[in-house]
């Protein structure tokens, strides 16, 4: 039922021409998605979805709308290739998921490789009672370090871009204020 | 009892999403988005009790904070057309 709501909201986003409405609807989508993830017992992912999708993304998109116009320009030609590509990719993914073991099977391949060792040794190795945290921050420490580096680099890039733009704006503002004074 | 509450919340969620999709003005959509956020929090809390893990309440509190931030940003955008608007700057000569 939540998934049906998700599909409805997605179709509404596609049909919407007012970009402000799109931002609001994508916030709705994020909260619904977070609810689905909670029902699927992935509370940490739901947390990320709610904070990034509904919190930060909304604010960033609104800031972008301030810089652009809020009505989407009607495309002058319709091309069907993206739709076909998306449908083919989606069907391929759906076809691939048919071969997956049922949801929550304890003896699926992915649960027999290293999971028993993590479950058995977490407290002994890392002294962290939460297994997910210990895997993310300890067993996969280098992976997480790499991700953090990527995000940090992206943040620095965005900051540099925005600072450059603001300096240009500030210079223009000063020039404009000069003659008036 | 919790199952009934969850069903009621789902119904309310459907109504809110309907309003968000149909809403003639943007304000309807803002209000609907806010209620969807609130209903997601309620659903989270009820689902926590339904599966006997009331710790979910803490996560619900975080959601509530996020919801407030999002709504404040939207309303600020409406009022001033700018997120970085500063009231003190207007008072300066």
Quantity of strands of chain B, as a count: 0
The oligomeric state is: heterodimer
Poorly predicted runs of chain B: none
- What's the domain count of chain B? 1
Class per helix and strand makeup of chain A:
mainly alpha
What proportion strand of chain A? under 5%
Nearest-integer average pLDDT of chain B: 77
Radius of gyration of chain B: 17 Å
Considering residues with a beta carbon less than 8 A from a beta carbon on another chain, report the largest interface and each chain's count: A-B, 32 and 33 residues
Q: In angstroms, what is the radius of gyration of chain A?
A: 23 Å
Distance from first to last alpha carbon of chain B: 61 Å
Helix content of chain B: over 70%
Query: Count of helices of chain A?
Result: 7
Share in β-strands of chain B:
under 5%
User: What characteristic shape of chain B results from the CA principal axes?
Assistant: flat
Structural notes for this entry:
The complex is a heterodimer of chains A (181) and B (93). In chain A, 76% of the residues lie in helices and 0% in strands. With 181 residues, chain A is mostly helical. Chain A has a domain of 72 residues. Chain B has 93 residues and is mainly alpha-helical. The longest helix of chain B has 25 residues. The mean pLDDT of chain B is 77. Chains A and B meet through helix 1, helix 2 and helix 3 of A and helix 1, helix 2 and helix 3 of B.
């Amino acid at each position: 039922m939540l998934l049906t709501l998700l599909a409805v909201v997605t179709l509404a986003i596609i049909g919407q021409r007012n970009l402000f409405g799109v931002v609001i609807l994508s916030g709705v989508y994020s909260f619904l998605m977070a609810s689905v993830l909670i029902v699927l017992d992935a509370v940490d992912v739901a947390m990320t979805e709610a904070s990034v999708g509904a919190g930060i993304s909304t604010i960033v998109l609104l800031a972008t709308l301030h810089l652009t116009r809020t009505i989407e320009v009607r495309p002058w030609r319709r091309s069907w290739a993206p739709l076909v590509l998306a449908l083919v990719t989606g069907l391929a993914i759906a076809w691939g998921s048919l071969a997956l073991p049922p949801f929550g099977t304890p003896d699926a391949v992915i649960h027999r490789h290293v999971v028993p060792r993590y479950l058995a040794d977490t407290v002994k190795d890392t002294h962290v009672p939460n297994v997910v945290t210990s895997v993310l921050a300890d067993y996969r420490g280098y992976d997480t370090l790499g991700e953090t580096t990527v995000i940090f680099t992206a943040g620095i890039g965005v900051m540099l871009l925005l600072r450059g733009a603001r300096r240009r704006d500030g210079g223009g503002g000063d020039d404009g204020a000069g003659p008036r004074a | 009892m919790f199952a009934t509450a969850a069903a009621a919340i789902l119904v309310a969620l459907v109504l809110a999403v309907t309003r968000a999709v149909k809403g003639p003005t943007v304000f309807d959509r803002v209000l609907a988005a806010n209620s969807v956020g609130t209903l997601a929090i309620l659903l989270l809390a009820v689902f926590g009790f339904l599966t006997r893990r009331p710790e979910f309440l803490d996560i619900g509190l975080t959601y509530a904070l996020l919801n407030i931030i999002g709504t404040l940003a939207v309303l600020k955008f409406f009022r001033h057309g700018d997120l970085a608007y500063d009231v003190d700057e207007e008072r300066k000569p």
